[in-house]
Design goal:
Oligomer: single chain
Number of helices: 1
Strand order of the largest sheet: 1-2-3
Shape: elongated
Distance between the termini: 29 Å
Structural class: alpha+beta
Strand content: 25-35%
Length: about 60
């Protein structure tokens, strides 16, 4: 868990709020959007984008 917090502090994450100033989600790009894995290598020719939403806003 400490690594996730360190990444959010060190890398550019942006909060997204609704018109009533309630937190809606976040987005990030670049290395901070990459998920560590052993299956594939990230390509420098592409920009990685990460998105997150409050779970209660994702379905009925």
């Amino acid at each position: 868990m400490g690594d996730a917090i360190d990444a959010m502090i060190a890398e550019p994450y942006f909060a997204v709020f609704d018109r009533h100033a309630n937190l809606f989600g976040f987005f990030c790009s670049g290395i901070s959007a990459q998920v560590p894995n052993d299956e594939y290598r990230y390509d420098d020719n592409f920009i990685d984008i990460g998105l997150g939403m409050k779970p209660d806003l994702t379905s009925d």
